[in-house]
């Protein structure tokens, strides 16, 4: 896609979110429905109770419509195109059901972890099966080693990769604007990698996602007028994992998505330490809450974490193309 064509998916996605999001927020306010804030979270978050949620419905719809319109125009409805949209839809549906139960059925927990995990695993298995039927190899590129054929074990890796990063992005979505900004950086980076590989269908979806998240950030920045909900965060994480697989650059997600990785590790370390010693490593996990309770504002956390994302993305591109 040339410079002008790049602007089309970006602009369409932004415009859709700008037009629809105020109506979506207005509906939630009219019905007096919003996010229930966990009492065990940071005390300052209690003031956010009642803030509309499920904003991911709007930006995922924006990504879908933009991708379909531009994809049909550019004739880029490839196997990769439909694979990414399939995972976006399935993981978004899981998140939607979770959010729907919380908001409309007034049950704080939504879907239980087992139900979500089963859905995520099924999605990963279907994706791998479709990849195999389309001749995708079981090779995994390992830096300094090269391509290694893992056979059926690659399928296990693919499922773990999707489930892991879907949940990692979900864990990171804990303060206003954080995942919206990080997502723009992550998908923008993969748009560049896809362009370099001439995988324009993937580039198109990445650009549509950047545009949709930019539009959403306007409403999601502190003080947030709306949250993305699990419908947004689970889908974004699944999409990133799928894109890294389809580009055969899985390892890059460990760098591009370093913040998501660290957020997840902080939870694992906290739980393990408490179970083994009865002591906590962090004031609260995920780690963005630790910084909150250490006196950092949400804006400061956003900016510092976004900078980490930018630096790691730049490093990734430098490693690949320098």
From TrEMBL:
InterPro entries: Glycosyl_transferase_4, PNAcMuramoyl-5peptid_Trfase, PNAcMuramoyl-5peptid_Trfase_CS. Coiled coil: none annotated. It comes from the Bacteria. It is a multi-pass membrane protein. GO terms for cellular component: plasma membrane. GO terms for molecular function: metal ion binding; phospho-N-acetylmuramoyl-pentapeptide-transferase activity. Its EC number is 2.7.8.13. The keyword Cell cycle applies. Pathway: Cell wall biogenesis; peptidoglycan biosynthesis. The chain crosses the membrane at residues 6-28, 54-73, 79-97, 117-134, 140-163, 175-194, 200-219, 226-247, 253-274, 303-321. GO terms for biological process: cell division; cell wall organization; peptidoglycan biosynthetic process; regulation of cell shape. Mg(2+) binds at residues 170, 230. Its cofactor is Mg(2+). It catalyses: UDP-N-acetyl-alpha-D-muramoyl-L-alanyl-gamma-D-glutamyl-L-lysyl-D-alanyl-D-alanine + di-trans,octa-cis-undecaprenyl phosphate = Mur2Ac(oyl-L-Ala-gamma-D-Glu-L-Lys-D-Ala-D-Ala)-di-trans,octa-cis-undecaprenyl diphosphate + UMP. The keyword Cell wall biogenesis/degradation applies. Keywords: Cell cycle, Cell division, Cell membrane, Cell shape, Cell wall biogenesis/degradation, Magnesium, Membrane, Metal-binding, Peptidoglycan synthesis, Transferase, Transmembrane, Transmembrane helix. It is found in: Cell membrane; Membrane. Belongs to the glycosyltransferase 4 family. MraY subfamily. Catalyzes the initial step of the lipid cycle reactions in the biosynthesis of the cell wall peptidoglycan: transfers peptidoglycan precursor phospho-MurNAc-pentapeptide from UDP-MurNAc-pentapeptide onto the lipid carrier undecaprenyl phosphate, yielding undecaprenyl-pyrophosphoryl-MurNAc-pentapeptide, known as lipid I. This is Phospho-N-acetylmuramoyl-pentapeptide-transferase. It comes from Vagococcus bubulae.
């Amino acid at each position: 896609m040339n410079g002008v064509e790049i602007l089309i998916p970006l602009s369409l996605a932004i415009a859709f979110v700008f037009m629809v999001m105020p109506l979506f927020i207005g509906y939630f306010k009219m019905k007096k429905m919003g996010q229930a804030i966990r009492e065990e979270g940071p005390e300052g978050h209690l003031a956010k109770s009642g803030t509309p949620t499920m904003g991911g419905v709007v930006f995922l719809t924006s990504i879908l419509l933009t991708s379909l319109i531009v994809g049909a125009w550019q004739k880029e409805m490839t196997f990769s195109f439909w694979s990414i949209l399939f995972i976006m839809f399935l993981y978004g549906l899981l998140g939607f059901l979770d959010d729907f139960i919380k908001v409309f059925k007034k049950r704080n927990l939504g879907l239980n972890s087992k139900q979500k995990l089963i859905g995520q695993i099924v999605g990963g298995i279907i994706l791998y099966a479709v990849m195999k039927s389309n001749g995708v190899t079981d090779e995994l590129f390992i830096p300094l080693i090269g391509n290694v054929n893992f056979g059926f074990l690659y399928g296990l890796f693919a499922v773990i990769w999707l489930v892991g990063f879907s949940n990692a992005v979900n864990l990171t979505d804990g303060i206003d604007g954080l995942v919206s900004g990080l997502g723009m950086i992550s998908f923008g980076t993969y748009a560049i990698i896809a362009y370099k590989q001439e995988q324009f269908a993937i580039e198109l979806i990445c650009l549509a996602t950047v545009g949709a998240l930019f539009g959403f950030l306007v409403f999601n920045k502190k003080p947030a007028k709306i949250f993305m909900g699990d419908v947004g965060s689970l889908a974004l994480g699944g999409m990133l994992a799928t894109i890294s697989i389809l580009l055969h650059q899985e390892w890059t997600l460990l760098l591009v998505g370093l913040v998501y990785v660290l957020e997840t590790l902080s939870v694992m370390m906290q739980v393990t330490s408490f179970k083994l010693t009865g002591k906590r490593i962090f004031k609260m996990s995920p780690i963005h809450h630790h910084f909150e309770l250490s006196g950092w504002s949400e804006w400061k956390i956003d900016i510092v974490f976004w900078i980490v994302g930018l630096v790691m993305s730049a490093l990734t591109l430098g490693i690949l193309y320098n």
